[in-house]
Structures are given as C-alpha cells and as structure tokens.
From TrEMBL, chains A, B:
Pfam families: CoA_binding, Put_DNA-bind_N. The keyword tRNA processing does not apply. It comes from Paenibacillus uliginis N3/975. GO terms for cellular component: cytoplasm. Residues 79-180 form the CoA-binding domain. Residues 16-55 bind DNA. InterPro entries: CoA-bd, NAD(P)-bd_dom_sf, Rex_actinobacterial-type, Rex_DNA-bd_C_dom, Tscrpt_rep_Rex, WH-like_DNA-bd_sf, WH_DNA-bd_sf. HAMAP family: Rex (MF_01131). Keywords: Cytoplasm, DNA-binding, NAD, Repressor, Transcription, Transcription regulation. NAD(+) binds at residues 90-95. This is Redox-sensing transcriptional repressor Rex. The keyword Cell division does not apply. Belongs to the transcriptional regulatory Rex family. The lineage of its organism: Bacteria, Bacillati, Bacillota, Bacilli, Bacillales.
Amino acid sequence: MKSDKISEAVVRRLPVYLRYLNELHLREVATVSSQELGQKLDLNPAQIRKDLAYFGDFGRKGIGYDVSYLIEKIRHILKLDQQINVVLVGAGNLGHALSNYNAFLKDNMKIVAIFDAYTPKVGTKINNLVVQSMEELTATIKEFGIRIGIITVPDVEAQDVADKLISSGIEAILNFAPTILKAPPHIRIHTADFTTDLQSLAYYLDNGKEDADHDEA
Amino acid sequence: MKSDKISEAVVRRLPVYLRYLNELHLREVATVSSQELGQKLDLNPAQIRKDLAYFGDFGRKGIGYDVSYLIEKIRHILKLDQQINVVLVGAGNLGHALSNYNAFLKDNMKIVAIFDAYTPKVGTKINNLVVQSMEELTATIKEFGIRIGIITVPDVEAQDVADKLISSGIEAILNFAPTILKAPPHIRIHTADFTTDLQSLAYYLDNGKEDADHDEA
DNA sequence: TAGATTGTTAATCGATTAACAATC
DNA sequence: TAGATTGTTAATCGATTAACAATC
C-alpha cells in the first residue's frame, strides 16, 4: 500500500507490535505470522497486516514476517533508531517514578533533564539527574536537542508548563496532569490520565439488581 | 434516547465531562452548554449531547445543562456515588506514586490495600497502609469488598497477578505493566502503558529532510 | 505440489458530525 | 417574541474485518 495518511490508531499499535517482536527476538524466534501476532495481542490478523502494509511490504507470502527485519522497520518508522531526548517537568512522586523507568532507554528514549518549580527541590538529585529550576528550561531543551516533554506537575500548572515547553521548541508532549492542554496543531499531545482510566472502569462494575439504572433490558 | 449498548469511547469521555463540571461547580457556575463544554474539552458539541442523551434527558432546550444536576447524574452513571474499594499490587516506584494520589478519593475511589511479592517490602508502610504479602490477597479482597485492582508489578509478573485478582473476585483491572493481559470477557481491563504512549509520540516528530522516509509527498 | 500466509480490495461496522424540529 | 440550545435523525466519515488472488 504505502503512503496515505496514517491514523493515530495505527500509530498507537506499532509500539505494541514492537514490544512483542522484541520478546520473540529474545526467544530467538525468527519468523511470525499475523495470525500468531493477533492471537497474542488480541488483535485481528487482517488489521495487523494492513497496519504494517501502510509502511511497506515487510512480510513474505506463505511465510510471515521476519522478526528481526520487522523490528528494524518499526523502530525506523517510530524514529526509535535514533536517540530521542526527553525532558520531565515535575519532580513529584509520579515524575520520580517515571524517571527511573528505564524501559524508555532500551528503545532510545532518554530522560536527560528534570525540572521543578518548587525551589527546595531544585538541586536535589533524582536518578543521577540534578533537578533544575524552570528558568533553565528553554536553554536546556535547546542545548540537549530535547524533543519530547513529559508533564507530571499538578493540573493547575500543566498548561503553563506546556506553553513553556512549546515555546522552547518541544515537538510533542506526554501529559499526566488531569487536564486538557491547549496547543497549536503541530504539537502532538498524548494524555495519560489514570484518573479517567480508573473512573471509566467503575462504569463496568456490576451492581446486580440493587437499582438497575431503570433501563436494563 | 436511553438504552442501547454504550460504546467504550462514550464511557471514557464521561469522566472528562465530570472533571470539568466539578471545576465549574467550584467556580459556582450554574449552567453550561454543550458548546462551551466542547470548546473547553476539544470535543464536538453534538457528540457531547449525544453522549449524555444515551443516559437520559439531562439538559434543557434553550438553556443548557444544570452543572450540579449533571454532576450528580454522571457520578451515578459511573457508580461514583458509592465508595469503590481498590487494591494496588506492586509497591514499587509507580505503585508508590499512585498510592498517594488522592484524586481518586474525592470521587469515592479508595486504595484500601497494597500488596507486594517482595518479602522485605511486606510490613513496611506506604501512606498509612501496610504492604501485605500476596498470600493475603484473596482474603483481603473479600473482606473489604474490593472490586478494582491496579497492577504496577513488572511485566513478567503481571499476568499472574491478574489471574490471582480475578480468581479473588475482582471485576476490573487497571494495568500499568507493559503487557497484554488475558482475562475472561466479563473482566474489564484498561491498559495504562506510557511506554507505548511515548513511543507513539516519537512517530510524530518531524525529521525534516534528512531521509524523508521515502514516501513523503 | 499442497499448505500457509501475505497484501489489498470490498464489505461491514461503528463512531462522529451536521442539521433541524422542538422548546425553553 | 427572538435567541439559544437541546435531543435526535440522517449523513458522513473512518476504522475494522472478511475474503481472496498472488505467491512463497
């Protein structure tokens, strides 16, 4: 197929493929079919083939996909074949937790700087990185060529931080604050909000009879 | 409208509505239109009206939605008008961070127990909760009527933990481990995987000329 | 060769959006 | 009343899935 505009749904599945392919590679599995991939990842095999076909003909008819080759291709598509520098803003509990999450590292994503607005925190060390004050944000982003920002500040500060990141030249933001950030269209924002995740889970709890919500069936 | 099967997309937007409505309520705003809601939340007003109409006629033509009334309704729909007890498995950095995330609390979701498989951690205190050993998991879940589990253990342990949670009677799981969990269909699982979030963000970085990926335009 | 599996088209399904009568 | 805004139907858009010829 090639080209076309790729939908976000497709892009979001690529890292999932990559993760399982890495696992296969570790187990020295050489080849995998869309069927097996689908079974393992709870996805339709046709969807997987279609997703991959957007980017090229990576498989072989009758055989399947070469694991190593596909890993290489997906890494390239996701731009993980180069180091991506990441900045983390907000050295609270969550920021702390994310900072020593090395899962990023093996895929070339690296948190290279941490910032916090709270003065007493500035200068302390988190995972070999010295927490910097917000004044240095722009300079550091430029110096290290940082391209992605992770926001783990309280919700009221999130928009301000986003604005600063954007004006400093960041291209994409992963936002953990429970708020909808406004940004120009060329800035990509993903929201990772477990409050809404958890609340939407509650919907699916089964309350049996009790009040049955009036329109049960 | 009423009834129909509600899609997950709709359910996932409800907590977002709720959050902003709570903010309006705090600011003592009495009424809000789908238009204003849409603007603030980056959603189509028609979609918001449709989402809400699945559950009842909550608005008034020509007026909009009564903020307090809508909050009450959404909280009921999401079952947040009763306390939902949550268990956290995995007392590592992330688990630690989540455990003192009181945002849950104000919406009636409460982490009432924490478990970890690592013996030296058992017995230590995290946010007033004593970390318990996995042997006590089932008993505690039953005793406290815990209905939702949060998994923050390493990926290799996640499926085991999920199995244990499920056999102990948990109804829904929020999984932070980077792996696809298998579970019977009546168990609701949400995956909160920031590794894939972050990796999919990298796709949208702009590499300008450099190699242009062969099929740029 | 026979069996397996891709890439891709066509069919289906579902979700979003536009439009508007009803009505506050 | 005139203006605003809902609830809902119909239109659109997009994503998923089935099916199958090509081919390893």
